[in-house]
Amino acid sequence: MDSSSVTGRRSLHPRRALSADIATREDITMHPLRPSQIQSDNEHGYLLENTGQRVCDDSNQDNSHHPLSSTVVGSHRPRLNPLKSWWQEVALSLLTIALLVTIISMLRAFNNEPLPEWSVGLNLNTVVALLATLIRSSLAMVVEEVLSQTKWTWQRHSRAVANLVAFDEASRGPLGSALLWFRVATSSGFSRQSIKSSQFYAAFIATIVGILSLAIGAFTQQAVKSVPCNIAVPGANVSLPLVYGPLDGMTMRYGAGLFDLDFATKGRLLRAFTGSDTERQLLIRGCPTGNCTFDMIAPGITHTMSGFCSKCLNTSHKVAQVYEAQERFNNTSYVVMLRLPTGLAVGPLIEYPVHVLQTGRGSSDWLKSELDSVPDYSKAFNSSAATVNILSLSTAGCQWSEIRDEWSVWHDYECPFPSERANRNKTKQERYLSWNVAAASCALYPCIQDMKAEIKNGVLHETKVSEKIIYPVNVSGEGHVGMFISPCFINGVRYDIPESSSTKPSSIGLSEATSALPAQCYYSVPRWIFMTMAIQDWFDDLLVGNCSIATNQGDSARVRSWALCDGGLGARWWLSGFYNRGNATFDSISTIMDGVATAITDSLRLGSIAQYGLNVNNTVNGTVWRSDVCTEFNWRWLLFPASLIVLTLVSLVSIMAASAYDVHKTPVWKSSILPFLYLRRSEMFTDLPSDSLQEMKKAAREEQVVLRRGDEDRWQLVKTKKQL
């Protein structure tokens, strides 16, 4: 082709100039690009294939003579509307936000709730996984189009065809995205201008999103977790009884000033010495699932009730060694006894039976100095229905070793008490020094207790949070021993004794209740229960006695662990609980006395519902729970997909802005392959009035081609006539 023909064609429309060379035949072959047909000029431009015409790249900013782009670069063309070209990607981005909001809303709605049961067979995890997959797919489609569009803008500079391939493969999956910038770098596709461009940042962010989007499903699944939980059972009831009313059925008067307790209460008292609390399960009313709770009326407090409490004072320091004369075989000898000021004594070891435990009732006058130093103890002992003194030998805290001689085997004990010890080479008569001692004085008194209760696996767990001593005790008035508490909370309303009143709470009787101080704020125990404990012999029979060990069986740990009470006749066997198999301590004695107080209180509570039934005055109601599997929502795991959505939006906005403000007004072709076909200088395709993607798609619907081998045995796309 000569130069004149070339010049002449320049006067025509560029597209028409190409069509002038098309041969008029039915099938025209489109030949693939061959390296020999591309002639590089220099770093500022390139030559069009088979024409020798130079077209400058973007570095020269002059494409006015490009035969394929004169309709693109003209300054008369208006600025592109990015929303018109990118509306699908914008819609997908908004869809990802909506999907993430849906996931968050669902997980919040079912947080700490049972797993939903849907009739279609889906569960919450499946739905979340499905939505996460849609989020990843939508993000992948957006970043794919961002990378695909960058493929075209990247080639505004003269670069190797390998760059087009690298961007195209990056838009197809995470592997291509991971290798993109390595491939671009190895094909010399970087320049200072390209790195600073917004298209580069958009593509770089898109590759990051494409790679990290693989983990969206895993992170989203971590946000929802199935955990065991308790669910309230509608319509199920649970209640615990409180002490209420005179409870005449618990005592029996059989003479002037003579009363007796019912047998059930006595049985509970005996069980207190053995540490058994199985009877406490009788307090549970309802709770079919075995797991129930009660609402808090104050921090850590589920209910307040009256009853009996116990306080013990450690009196081990009051124990003294006393030498007592003993006549034996017309001979007088002296033995050492361990004795309390009340007269309780234990020892000596050389006699049979040897007292190792002794208990007794008595006043607390001998403890006045100790009680005065602790006001609560002074009130408790002064208000007590019964005061019990306990003295016991013990091997707790002792070390022992086995000693053998020619005739026998015995044990040597080294104990921290008594402080006045014989020499270390003890004789048989001095073995009484091989014991420790535990001593306590305990008071049983009426009190008001703040409790925290719950039921787990069918077992009642009730803990005393605090207590108030009913003091002073007034047994001459009404049928109650009690007092008002102030402040008092009923259904969230606080009630107080008027500040102007100089009367102590315990001096105000139940009959003096008013609207300002309702009867529900009055807590008491039945008067006759208190009197029965204070004056009746049966309580002495319960708590007073002595125990010994069988010294004729030798001195060993096994013998010392066995206490025979009341001369081994089997009476008052429960007192051996104080001895605690030879390991009595102040704490073990206090625990038993707490159990005695609890047993009396439990009897009062059960007697209350036996006499008055279940009502709002004598019960505390709770909630029944059943075990289930619940959803736990950990929102922090969703920060990852949320971050990827934000990065995708940044990438999309960057490429849209670059398209809108591109001075060259590069068409938005994105991932379409049509530009590769229509921009190729070939006689095969129809000339187009515009290089817009819509025009290309319209023409693609009209033209038909076939893939077949040509004359040179090479695959070719050949244009054919449209079938009518």
UniProtKB/TrEMBL annotation:
Q: Which UniProt keywords apply?
A: Membrane, Transmembrane, Transmembrane helix
Amino-acid biosynthesis in keyword set: no
PANTHER family given in the database record = DUF3176 DOMAIN-CONTAINING PROTEIN
Q: Which InterPro entries match?
A: DUF3176
**Which residues are listed as membrane-spanning?**
86-107, 127-147, 200-219, 637-661
In residue numbers, the region (Disordered) covers 1-24, 54-74
Which chain positions lie within coiled-coil regions? none
| Protein's name according to its UniProt entry | Uncharacterized protein
Q: Does the keyword Metal-binding apply?
A: no
Pfam name, any one: DUF3176
